[in-house]
Amino acid sequence: MFSRQNLSTRRILLAWLLVTPVVLWRLLTSVYPFLRTFYISFFDNSPVRRTFDFVGLDNYMALTRDANVDATLTFTLFFTVTSVALQVVLGLAIAELLNQRFKMRNFTRAVNLLPWAMAPIVIATAARWIFHQDYGLINDIIWRLSGERPLWLVNFTTARFAVTITDVWKNTAFLAVIFLSGLQGIPLELYEAAKIDGADGVRSYWYVTLPLLMPLIISMIIFTAIFRVLTFEIVYALTNGGPGTATSLLSYLVYLEGFRVLNFGYASAIAMLLFFIVLVVGVVGYGFLRRAWERL
Amino acid sequence: MNTQLNLKRGIRTTLFTLMVILFMIVILLPIYYIFLTAFAPSGKLFTVPLTYFPRSLAIARFQDIFGALPIARYMLNSTLLATFSTILALTVSLLAAYAIARLDFPGANLVMIGLLASSMLPGTATVIPLFQMFQTLKLMDTLHGLLILYGSALLPITTWVLVSFLRQVPVEIEDAAKVDGASFFPLLWRIVLPVIRPGIATMFLINFIIGWNEFFTPLIFARGAGVKVITMALSEAQVIGARSEFDVSWGNMSAVAILTTIPVFIITLIFQRQIVEGITSGVFK
Q: Are B143 and B227 in contact (CB under 8 A)?
């Protein structure tokens, strides 16, 4: 009896010994800095002015008056909703495409992964050239079709779509891969049963495929939405948040305020706002997910 | 009747083929365009309309960027950081994953949930204190400092995926080895590791790609030429020989984009199936 207890204590000790490196590493580089950001957000902290003064909620009050924050939240909403919607719809379509039998299917599946594998910063920087008014690829095609050359990155609306299109091009592959794997998990018998009931093609997709994929779709919407809110590179390299603040996102604002203006206190308050939004998206999304599971 | 059916099927096949072609064009044409820009002979870069099938290609852009920037050094740094962060993250994640999947201990779930929650903390919400810590600890502009951050970002997902791989492997082999008196590290090395090698290989590929593509972390924490990485050369290449801030060299930028992209394309095209398995195992299991 004594020796068995001894064994289990040893096992628990070993287990904690084994998880310690990972836990400690994350605590020091993620959890502690995050708590510290929360702490700094109550201070006027600037390495330039050499200040570290407690200011209470001043930074948060300043957030509510900041027009840049307003513009950023507007674009964050536009970008998240548009990009997630396009990615989910296109991701489902591509997954369906890649699930069919055809020559070169493996090659097509590999090509689908290429945008996923490319660095976001490469795509964002290259996109500035691709959206170039006179010599860019997109305007060359549009010009051949219509004779127009839209000023993509100069106008508010088109700049917003340029950022969204770039993001969709880069990230839809990921969703397509996930959805494809979801499609492959649906038992064929269900389609045969639907066929006997007279449903095929579009109707069996609507009544069999979509309901079964729904929990997966919802969890991917949450996941994708959170990463849209966190997007940095595309805005950093493609538009610099412009024209004006038309395509500014919160991560970019934190970067500007923290590492260009060097206003750590205020930047930390923006970062906490960012975290709060991610939290809300996660919690609300989780609620939807649970309801989808219950309905299944 | 039969011909009508054949016609219908023919139309569907044609439509389907058109969709596949359209999909391929949307993915490949922008990549091809960057390739063209990188290899365009000088003077042939700005043409209206664009020339999609150029008569000649030139490597002048590549000579320019290698001449003006320490590109080889950047690529070496990218390789070192991606490789060693991957190895480090895999090693400690494997230890943790083994404990979570095999040693039924109080707190195992807490560790899993904690890792997932910590991966939801945005990088931008931790960067300012990390910046201050790195200055105090003299870790700014050092490869080992960057390694700490690169590795950290990989831990949550890697641990989750390895746990899911371990849970699919039957424990009996390990139990047999334990009865034979194998102690922990030999057990891990000789019995566990070979069994989940596919999982490790998959996570190695994915983590290498993530590390190679990293940009935000080096942007903040690597400012000296000795520690900069290839993704940072994109903006530097644009201003080689520039006369004003609006004088952007798209050719040079494209050349760096090609250099940055070739390694990840090779990995992706060769190991497509393993990568897909890795991506999906993080979501499904």
A: yes
- Within a domain: B165: yes
Residue B41 and residue B149 in one domain: no
Type of residue at A8? S
- For B148, the 3-state DSSP assignment is helix
> Which chain A residues are Cβ-neighbours of B104 within 8 angstroms?
11
> Using only C-alpha atoms, what is the Rg of chain A?
24
Residues of A in contact with B276 (CB under 8 A): 109, 113, 177, 181
Contact by Cβ (8 Å): B177, B191: yes
Query: Is the distance from CB of B210 to CB of B154 less than 8 angstroms?
Result: yes
The beta-carbon neighbor of A230 closest among B50, B122, B130 is: B122
A170 CB-contact burial (10 Å; exposed 0-12 / middle 13-18 / buried 19+)? buried
Please list the pLDDT of chain A residue by residue as tens digits (296 residues): 445 566 688 888 999 999 999 999 999 999 999 999 999 999 999 988 888 999 999 999 999 999 999 999 999 999 999 999 999 999 999 999 999 999 899 999 999 999 999 999 999 999 999 999 989 999 999 999 999 999 999 999 999 999 999 999 999 999 999 999 999 988 888 888 888 887 777 888 888 899 999 999 999 999 999 999 999 999 999 999 989 999 999 999 999 999 999 999 999 999 999 999 999 999 999 898 888 888 77
ipTM over cut 0.90: yes
Is residue B63 in some structural domain?
A: no
For residue B185, give the CATH number of its domain.
1.10.3720.10
* Domain span at B100: 68-284
B 41-80 residues with CB < 8 A to A: 45-50
Q: Which of B132, B149, B215 to probe by mutation at the A interface, max A CB count within 10 Å?
A: B215
Contacts of A106 in chain B (CB under 8 A): 272
